[in-house]
């Protein structure tokens, strides 16, 4: 514990010294969770050690070849091989290894509370929330929300190909493999939005498979979960009602589900609370009417290989109505 | 010159002894890894996985003893204390044997470190997941 | 003075007078014998004969050359060409990534490019480059005239050319593989094009060529050293070649086994990686990385080997810590096989297993460190001159140590969970490979260029190139550490502009072009015409090893006479060596029978054993390569009939080549090689290089087979439904029949060898024929054991993997039959006699392995699943 705190202090010092360049919504160096925090501290410690060792080795090389190229005593050479080649690395690496192995079980500890199941699809994320004791999941997509201060259990699966689930600000990644069920757990400590991205090459649009992880205070998380568990409310405006009709008549419901309507498709992402999400098309577009219209018109232009067909045949008015409907699904 | 006699026959000092220690390391690695895969997939381990960790411990101990034995054989071939020679660049049978012994001792040391490292998770990690 | 006493081998009952098989005369030579002058007239006549025998063919026939100096040069240039091409792909990718949301390359094209960049750099540049350089310089290090199997190197080279053009060419037809150089299923299975097949079949073809080269290099080091070069006097390069050859032998076959499973699924729907039918995509990852990680060391060690030759020359002192470097080479070779799963840290393996791989990954630091510090120790005790090659080595050390230190970081499984598959890894791997491979290889090219061409490269251009490459490299890759830590995954064709990756990527792209400029300067320096430049002196760096004994201007004979070696650095430590070599004072100074010959010596003490007649220029190797290419390339387009025909033609070419040029009956039993020593020309059994070639090849073959067996146990631990409860198993009586037939076939072959040896050729003939019949019966029984039981390989992974084992045995049985047929034909046409029995020895050796393979397979299909 003391060691960990000491690491934390040194890590913090190094952090402040380092450029703000290390920050970012997807940075492993601006941690917002316990696991990422431990790993970031570990990195800073290892970095300091690595820089020191690098300077020693290359300084010595430079010294031997440039500063003092003449012959030196053989005793020193022997000491160099035994000390530098065997003794020093054995001790350093053994220490590092013991520490590294010892933090592994913590990072994989079993989570509690609502379990989140994420299924990697090409190229989006199917998300199921399993509150404790639930028989049926609460279905969502392309975004996960987590309560701060709790270690949440995450179950990882894949549909057709291998993906990898990674939210650098919260912790390390774990692969999603067809035919296997993997698990991990995350313990966010600070509220906020952390960007994550698929880390295993998964085909054409591997680059365009991201998601936001939104960390909420526990009570907000519970309230939010209760909200998305409910079916979608009826469209409120005339325009939105027209859009709902377009949605059904165009057959969108064959692939997408909007709970509370006739749309119950399971091939594509669940859209029940689409507009409450922070992004569109698996973390690559902002949630704006323009982006939504562009996506529906030609998904392949935005995400090459996407299986959703383009709806460029829709009239301007139909599109506006459809977008208004979807924008209303909060 | 009886010693130089049979040029077509393998000399008394065989090459396999040089790599005996790393081969033991490899066997140890395969046995611990394979055993762990089977333990984790087929056996219900208790909270501390003592059966698995005991298995790793025993295998590691056996491997270390075997490496020590190989190291001892190599040390005798090296015969450092007769002339304190560790360069071995003369074209004689003795130097060749001592060289193989020397390299064998060093490989035993590295293999032993390798075996200890690979056994380390058995001490630190308490289960499969 | 020692007159050797050659006693017979008591283990061998033979009809052939023993003195025919063993050397006779004086060994080692005395100083008086060496001091005796050679008649200058005789010397001239010998030179003329040697020159004629070793001359390259003229005109268009030049391409039929097989000697190591020609094949090695072509090989190096071809590999370098692929590197430049793969480098261009990297630049195009860097352009795409220079700015966020770029559309310079489409996603599809970018994916093809990064797949091809990785595949080509690994399979078409890094590994072949090692083989190429080794083929080119190893014989010179060993004072040998050529490699033991020159036509095999030529065959390997032409396979490499054809396979490489096929694989790389696909990029121009927009049909290149695009699932990454690791080809993970199921993604690669879903790829509807032919890209994945091109990758798989094309690269399998090249892997076979690599294994061929490895076999040849290992035999070269073990058997082709000059007399007196005991194992403690071998140049370090040879030690590395031995280690790396061994690694190729154990690392490539698992990938070949994986390729086999992979292609069976793609072509015939055998569900090895399909979870719906009991398969598991993780098996591919295991097999790929059991190859993939040793691969990293396979490309790293030879480059360190080059450094091990340059450093003593720069320090003008023998290497310090020879035994330590041998330790580190052998130790690294072994440990590198325990690291494979560190590419799979994020796949959800048990924590305990991750721990083992983390531990082994950290342990490998130790031999690598020893290596580095032994070089530094040498620099410490010597007086260092900063030669141009040393500059590249110093740059390599600076870059490699940085890559090694980040390697220590990522070897820790928990930290790897963060940076795995991010740009941090891109930085790490390029730091290790540029520092550990590219820089030392360039150093080696500057260093050995005078040896290859008898000209020097430009000192000035070399320094310009160095500084451009070095700074460019760091500008390009250093920022990537941060890019990765800021969350940028690998293999993305684009990225958004608001995450803070944009400026880092822009810097990297700039650096990539600076690096490219450096490489371009080097390429120009390498390839620019140097016609007018005067020839260099013979030993321009004042080095101590044998390669610098080669003549200026170049003579194709390699060494004028094969020296007797008594030191590690003969040119430094044996003062009259050069003069005596040139005078033809040493061994094998003549080619009086008009054959290309080189000396074969014992494995540990390098005592002369016999003379090997090596093969000369030939077209059959090229034809064999073309038809082998057909056998691999046609299946890509599902043209199985042409593939079979092509395979048969390839086999015919190879049989023709073996029949007409290997193990020929010599004119005389023994030849006087000089210095009072007479050596036999025809030997068989473990004295012959061919036997060693077979033995080593079969070790690789067994590794591939072991990987398939591993697959069975893998499915058993990974899947609860393996084997399925209601599955049909192989019919036991037929399995027993197969065991009995294969055992008897093996016994018949073995008996045939022994009775033939004892002089009874007729009985041997009967044994061979019986073996043929028994093999056919055994193969039939094994086939029927599964077929008769109705095991359908497309139904579930269990029957599929059982069938793969059986197919493996059947294919080997076919090879065994061809070999038996070769011996039977030899027996009929007088090629195989009690005196000349090398073929039968080699075939029997193959049969030992075949019998083991068949026995294990029968156990696996008959007993093991019933116990699971």
Word description of this protein:
The complex is a heterotrimer of chains A (330), B (129) and C (868). With 330 residues, chain A is α+β, with helices and mostly antiparallel strands. Among the domains of chain A are: 115-229, Immunoglobulin-like, CATH 2.60.40.420; 238-327, Immunoglobulin-like, CATH 2.60.40. Chain A is built from eight helices and twelve strands. Chain A has a five-stranded mixed beta sheet. Chain B is mostly helical. Chain B has one domain. In chain B, 68% of the residues lie in helices and 0% in strands. Chain B contains four helices and no strands. Chain B starts with 19 loop residues before the first helix and ends in a 5-residue tail after the last helix. Chain C has helices at residues 31-35, 40-54, 68-97, 107-141, 150-169, 187-190, 195-223, 236-268, 281-315, 322-335, 351-363, 365-381, 388-410, 413-419, 423-453, 459-485, 502-527, 570-573, 577-583, 620-633, 640-661, 689-718, 732-757, 761-787, 797-829, 838-862, 864-867, and strands spanning 24-25, 597-601, 608-613, 670-674, 677-680. In chain C, the strands form two sheets. Chain C has a three-stranded antiparallel beta sheet, with no helix packed on it. Chain C has a two-stranded antiparallel ribbon with strand order 2-3. In chain C, strand 4 (670-674) and strand 5 (677-680) form a beta hairpin. Residues 1-11 of chain C have low confidence and may be disordered. The chains are: A alpha+beta (330), B mainly alpha (129), C mainly alpha (868). Chains in contact: A-B, A-C, B-C. At the A-B interface, helix 3 of A face helix 4 of B.
């Amino acid at each position: 514990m003391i060691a960990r705190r000491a690491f934390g202090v040194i890590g913090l010092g190094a952090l402040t010294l380092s450029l703000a360049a290390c920050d970012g919504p997807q940075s492993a160096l601006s941690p917002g969770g316990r696991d990422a925090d431990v790993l970031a501290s570990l990195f800073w410690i290892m970095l300091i050690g690595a820089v020191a060792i690098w300077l020693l080795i290359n300084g010595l090389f430079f010294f031997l070849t440039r500063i003092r190229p003449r012959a030196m005593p053989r005793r020193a050479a022997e000491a160099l091989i035994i000390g530098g080649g065997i003794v020093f690395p054995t001790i350093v690496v053994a220490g590092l290894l013991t520490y590294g192995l010892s933090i592994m079980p913590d990072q994989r500890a079993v989570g509690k509370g609502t379990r989140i199941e994420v299924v990697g699809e090409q190229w989006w994320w199917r998300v199921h929330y399993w509150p404790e004791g639930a028989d049926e999941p609460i279905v969502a997509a392309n975004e996960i929300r987590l309560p701060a201060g709790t270690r949440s259990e995450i179950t990882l699966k894949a549909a057709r190909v291998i993906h990898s689930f990674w939210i650098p600000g919260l912790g390390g990644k774990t692969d999603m493999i067809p035919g296997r069920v993997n698990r991990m757990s995350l313990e966010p400590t600070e509220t906020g939005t952390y960007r994550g991205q698929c880390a295993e090459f998964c085909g054409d649009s591997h680059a365009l498979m991201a998601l936001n992880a939104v960390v909420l205070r526990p009570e907000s998380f519970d309230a939010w979960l209760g909200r998305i568990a409910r079916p979608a409310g009826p469209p409120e405006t005339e325009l939105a009602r027209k859009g709902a009709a377009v949605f059904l008549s165009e057959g969108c419901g064959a692939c997408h589900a909007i709970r509370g309507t006739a749309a119950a498709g399971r091939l594509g992402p669940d859209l029940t609370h689409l507009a409450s999400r922070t992004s569109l098309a698996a973390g690559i577009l902002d949630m704006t009417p323009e982006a939504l219209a562009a996506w529906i018109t030609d998904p392949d232009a935005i995400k090459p290989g996407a299986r959703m067909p383009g709806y460029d045949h829709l009239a301007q008015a139909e599109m506006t109505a459809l977008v208004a409907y979807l924008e209303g699904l909060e | 010159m009886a010693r130089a006699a049979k040029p077509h026959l393998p000399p008394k000092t065989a090459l396999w002894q040089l790599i005996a220690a790393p081969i033991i390391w490899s066997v140890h690695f395969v046995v611990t890894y394979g055993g762990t895969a089977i333990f984790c997939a087929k056996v219900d381990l208790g909270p501390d996985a003592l059966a698995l960790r005991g298995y790793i411990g025993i295998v590691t101990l056996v491997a270390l003893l075997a490496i020590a034995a190989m190291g001892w054989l190599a040390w005798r071939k090296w015969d450092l204390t007769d002339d304190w020679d560790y360069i071995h660049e003369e074209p004689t049978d003795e130097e060749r044997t001592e060289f193989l012994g020397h390299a064998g001792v060093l490989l035993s040391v590295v293999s032993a470190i390798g075996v200890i490292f690979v056994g380390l998770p058995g001490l630190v990690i308490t289960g499969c997941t | 003075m020692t007159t050797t006493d050659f006693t017979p081998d008591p283990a061998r009952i033979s009809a052939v007078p023993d003195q025919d098989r063993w050397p006779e005369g004086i060994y080692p030579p005395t100083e008086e014998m060496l001091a005796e002058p050679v008649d200058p007239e005789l010397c001239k006549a010998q030179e003329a004969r040697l020159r004629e025998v070793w001359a390259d063919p003229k005109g268009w026939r030049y391409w039929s050359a097989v000697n190591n100096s020609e094949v090695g040069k072509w090989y190096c240039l071809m590999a370098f060409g692929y590197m430049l091409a793969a480098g261009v792909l990297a630049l195009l990718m860097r352009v795409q990534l220079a700015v966020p949301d770029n559309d310079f390359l489409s996603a599809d094209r970018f994916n093809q490019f990064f797949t091809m960049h990785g595949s080509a750099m690994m399979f078409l540049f890094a590994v072949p480059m090692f083989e190429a350089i080794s083929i080119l310089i190893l014989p010179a290090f060993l004072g040998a005239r050529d490699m033991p199997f020159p036509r095999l190197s030529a065959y390997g080279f032409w396979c490499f050319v054809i396979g490489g053009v096929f694989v790389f060419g696909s990029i121009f037809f927009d049909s290149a593989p695009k699932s990454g150089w690791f080809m993970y299923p199921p993604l690669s299975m879903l790829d509807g094009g032919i890209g994945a097949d091109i990758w798989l079949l094309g690269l399998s073809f090249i892997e076979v060529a690599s294994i061929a080269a490895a076999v040849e290099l290992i035999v070269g080091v073990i058997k082709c050293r000059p007399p007196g070069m005991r194992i403690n006097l071998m140049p370090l390069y040879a030690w590395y070649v031995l280690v790396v050859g061994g690694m190729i032998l154990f690392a490539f076959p698992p990938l070949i086994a994986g390729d086999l499973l992979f292609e069976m699924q793609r072509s015939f729907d055998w569900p090895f990686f399909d979870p719906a039918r009991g398969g598991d995509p993780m098996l591919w990852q295991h097999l790929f990385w059991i190859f993939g990680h040793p691969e990293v060391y396979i490309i790293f060690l030879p480059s360190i080997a080059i450094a091990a030759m340059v450093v003593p020359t720069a320090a003008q002192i023998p290497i310090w810590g020879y035994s330590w470097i041998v330790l580190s080479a052998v130790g690294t070779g072994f440990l590198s096989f325990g690291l494979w799963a560190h590419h799979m840290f994020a796949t959800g393996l048990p924590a305990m297993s991750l721990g083992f791989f983390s531990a082994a990954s950290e342990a490998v630091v130790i031999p690598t460190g020893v290596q580095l510090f032994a070089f530094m120790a040498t620099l410490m005790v010597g007086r260092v001159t900063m030669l141009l090659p040393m500059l590249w080595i110093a740059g390599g050390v600076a870059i490699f140590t940085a890559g090694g230190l980040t390697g220590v970081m990522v070897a820790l499984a928990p930290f790897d969970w963060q940076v795995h598959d991010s740009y941090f890894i891109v930085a790490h791997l390029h730091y290790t490979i540029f520092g550990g491979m590219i820089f030392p290889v360039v150093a080696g090219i500057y260093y050995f260029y005078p040896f290859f061409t008898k000209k020097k490269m430009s000192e000035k251009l070399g320094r310009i190139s160095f500084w451009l490459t070095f700074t460019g490299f760091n500008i390009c890759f250093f920022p990537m550490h941060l890019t990765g830590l800021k969350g940028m995954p690998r293999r993305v064709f684009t990225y958004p502009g608001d995450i803070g990756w944009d400026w880092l990527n822009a810097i990297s792209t700039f650096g990539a072009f600076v690096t490219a400029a450096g490489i371009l300067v080097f390429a120009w320096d390498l390839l620019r015409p140097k016609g007018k430049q005067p020839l260099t002196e013979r030993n321009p760096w004042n080095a101590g090893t044998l390669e610098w004994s080669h003549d200026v201007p170049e003579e194709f004979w390699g060494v004028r006479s094969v020296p007797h070696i008594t030191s590690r650095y003969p040119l430094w430590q044996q003062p009259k060596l050069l003069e005596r070599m040139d005078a033809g004072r040493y061994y094998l100074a003549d080619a009086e029978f008009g054959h290309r010959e080189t000396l074969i010596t014992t494995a540990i003490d390098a005592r002369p054993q016999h003379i090997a007649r090596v093969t000369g220029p030939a077209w059959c190797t090229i034809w064999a390569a073309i038809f082998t290419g057909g056998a691999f390339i046609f299946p890509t387009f599902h043209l199985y009939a042409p593939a079979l025909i092509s395979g048969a033609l390839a086999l015919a070419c190879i049989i023709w080549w073996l029949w007409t040029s290997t193990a020929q009956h010599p004119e005389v039993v023994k030849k006087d090689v000089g210095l009072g020593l007479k050596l036999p020309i025809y030997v068989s059994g473990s004295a012959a290089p061919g036997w060693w070639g077979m033995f080593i090849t079969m070790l690789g073959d067994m590794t591939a087979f072991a990987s398939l067996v591993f697959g069975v146990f893998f499915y058993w631990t990974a899947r609860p439904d393996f084997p399925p409860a209601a599955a049909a198993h192989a019919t036991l009586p037929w399995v027993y029949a197969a065991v009995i037939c294969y055992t008897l076939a093996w016994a018949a072959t073995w008996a045939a060898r022994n009775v033939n040896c004892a002089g009874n050729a007729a009985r041997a003939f009967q044994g061979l024929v019986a073996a043929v019949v028994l093999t056919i019966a055994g193969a039939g029984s094994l086939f029927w054991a599964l077929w008769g039981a109705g095991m359908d390989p497309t139904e579930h992974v269990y029957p599929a993997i059982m069938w793969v084992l059986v197919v493996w045995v059947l294919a080997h049985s076919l090879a065994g039959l061809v070999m038996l047929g070769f011996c039977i034909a030899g027996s009929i046409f007088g090629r195989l006699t009690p005196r000349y029995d090398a073929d039968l020895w080699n075939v029997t050796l193959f049969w030992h392995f075949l019998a083991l393979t068949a026995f294990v397979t029968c156990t696996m299909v008959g007993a093991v699943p019933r116990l699971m």
